[in-house]
Amino acid sequence: MHSIKKLSFVFILQIFLGSFLLQSQVIGDQYKVYFFLLEDCKITQSYIPEIKQLYNHYQNDSINMLAIYSAPSSNNVDIQSFHEKYKIPLKWKLDSLQSLAKLYNITVMPEVMVVNTTTNTLVYQGRIDDRWAAIGKRKNKAEINDLQNCLDHIILGKTPEFYKTQAVGCYLTKL
To answer: 20, 9, 11, 2: which is closest to 157 by C-alpha?
Structure first.
């Protein structure tokens, strides 16, 4: 009887450790969150509080957030001024040749991408939330927080399946 208890304990421990190791592998994945922004877009500006909140809550060793500016009108001075004015904590990059925008087929800003850089797979692309149904049609409060839901899955150690939503924002002028 005593050996059955011992075997049960070892089996439960193996299941726990196996589950822990599996979860550790998922948690060990690295993610990049790219916010494609346009500094003079009113919709982008309206999302700054949410972007800052998402950064403060989710930015860590496994999730790295970066603002990308791909509009032909964007320049280093204006972007830096925009970040200082709105106290945006994200690091930023000027995508002057639109290489990232082309890679991810970005058409409007703000639009967000979540990439698992460990597996080099796209996890999410689209809107931050559903607060903007269309240009000029803004809800008082978001009902679906798409980006937050994706990041919650990552934090919980669950590998999110790819999904895409339609972003609403200012159109990106192509080069």
So the answer is: 20
Where does the chain have alpha helices with state H? 2-27, 42-46, 48-58, 76-86, 99-103, 146-155
Look up the CATH number of domain 30-171: 3.40.30.10
Nearest-angstrom CA–CA distance, 161 and 1: 45
Q: What is the pTM of this model?
A: 0.82
> Per DSSP, what are the bridge partners of residue 122?
115
Residue type, 123: V
- The answer to whether residues 70 and 108 touch, using CB atoms and an 8 Å cutoff, is no
Radius of gyration of the chain (CA): 20
Instruction: Name the token pair of 20.
Output: 């822990």
Q: Share the mean pLDDT of the chain.
A: 86
